[in-house]
Amino acid sequence: MNLHVRVFTIGALAKATGVSTPTIRYYEEIGLLPPAPRTAGGQRTYDDDDLGRLTFIKQCRDFGFSIDQVRVLLELSISTNRDCVETRDIAQLHLDEVRQKLAELRLLERRLESFVTRCNVACAGGPGQDCVIFKDLAAPAKGGCCG
Amino acid sequence: MNLHVRVFTIGALAKATGVSTPTIRYYEEIGLLPPAPRTAGGQRTYDDDDLGRLTFIKQCRDFGFSIDQVRVLLELSISTNRDCVETRDIAQLHLDEVRQKLAELRLLERRLESFVTRCNVACAGGPGQDCVIFKDLAAPAKGGCCG
DNA sequence: GTACTCCTTCAAGTAACTTGAGGTTCAAGG
DNA sequence: CCTTGAACCTCAAGTTACTTGAAGGAGTAC
After folding, report:
1. CATH architecture for segment(s) A1-79
2. Tens digit of pLDDT for each residue in B6-21?
3. Å from B68 to nearest chain A CA?
4. Which of B74, B88, B100, B121 falls 20 to 30 Å from B39 in CA-CA distance?
5. Which CATH number fits domain B1-65: 1.10.1200.10, 1.10.1660.10, 3.40.50.150, 1.10.510.10?
C-alpha cells in the first residue's frame, strides 16, 4: 500500500528545495523541522510532507522573514482555529520593514555615489595623507561630502 | 604646555561619536582603536586624535563598510605612499554591492505587496488550514502568488 | 570486497556587536 | 572623611542563521 510514497535522503531533499544539508540538520535541531525518521544505519529519511514543509520554510526565508517569524507562520499554516489574517499582519509588518530598509539604502546609494565622484574629482590620486575625503570622514558628521 | 588638550572618558567619547561604550572597548579589542592609556584607577582616557579616528570609523560604518574594509581605509588614510585611488575603488565596489541589494529589495517589496494584497483578496479570513496563501508557499517556487 | 559518494555527530567559526554578572573608581554632597 | 550613585572595569556568554572542518560510518555500484 506504499504507492506514491516518495522517500528522500537528506541530499535529495536539499537538491529539491535548494536548502543545504547542514542547514536542514540545523532546522531539525532548532525545531523548525520534526526529527526525521532514520534508516537502520541511522541516516535521515524524508517524505513529501517534509518536502512541502521545507519548501514553505525556504519560500518564507526568501521573503526575508526571520526564523522566528517562520516559526509563527508555520504554526498559523497548520492551526485550525487561528485566524489567517494574522499572517497578513506579519507580512504587512515585514513589508514596512523592507520599505524602511529600502529608503535607507537609497540614501546610502546617493551618499556613496557622491563619495566616489568626489574621490575622482577632488583627489589628485596622491598619498592618503593629502586626501580631502579622509579629512571629511574624520570630521564630525555634517553631510559635508554628500547630499 | 597642555593647552587645548582635551581628555575624554569612554562615556564622553561615546556621546561625542554615537558609538556605544561596549563597542568602543570592542574596537580596541579587535585592534581598530589603539589601546587607550589608563588613569591610575585603570579607566581609559581618550584625546582629540581618538575622537577623529573613531569618528572616521563611525562614518565608514554608517556608509555600510565592513570592519575589514574600515581597517583598510584607516590604513590608507594614514599611509604616505599608498595611492588614495584605492579608497575610491573600495567605495565603488561597495556601491555596486549596495545597488545589487537595492535591486533585490525592490523585488522583495513587490512580492510582499502582492502577497499582502492576495491575503486580503483571496482569503476569507478563516482558519489557516484553508488559506490559499499557505498552499502556495508549500508548493515549489514558481512565483504563483506574486509578480 | 573495495571504491566512492553520501551520510553521521560534534565542535568551532562567522560578523559585529550586545547583554549580564560581579566588582571598582570617580566626583559630588553632607 | 564618608557615603552615595553614576560611570567605569573585566570576563563570559548570547545573538542570527548558518557554514566549515574533522573524523568516521552507511549505502551502492562494479
Report:
1. Orthogonal Bundle (1.10)
2. 899 999 999 999 999 9
3. 17
4. B74
5. 1.10.1660.10
